[in-house]
Amino acid sequence: MSSVIDQIIHTAAKLSQAGITPSTATVKAKMGGKIPMPQLIEGMARFKALSSEEVTQAAKVMIGSDDKPSTAAETARADDIQQQLNQLQHAYKTLSERVAALEAKLDGIA
Known about the structure:
Elements: H1 2-17, H2 24-30, H3 37-48, H4 52-60, H5 72-109
Helix pairs in contact: 1-2, 1-3, 1-4
């Protein structure tokens, strides 16, 4: 039972660190909605009793497969980040080619 409560605390801490006020509804949704209400309430009560330093520490703790995207929103965010990375890599390549062309022109002038 305590591992479920630890996961609830971890999830609430991650939400808090992301600027979202954790509630029983947001934590339950983030965890997939299959948490018994008594455990959810106990986990939230324990989370609310944590200091800000403990919240930061709880957000860093990785539990099980929590590092994998578990919701459609997280998957969409990961896809968006990947797309941004691809665009930046393309822009870098384009700029590098332009710099090389300009350097070649300068070498021809000098």
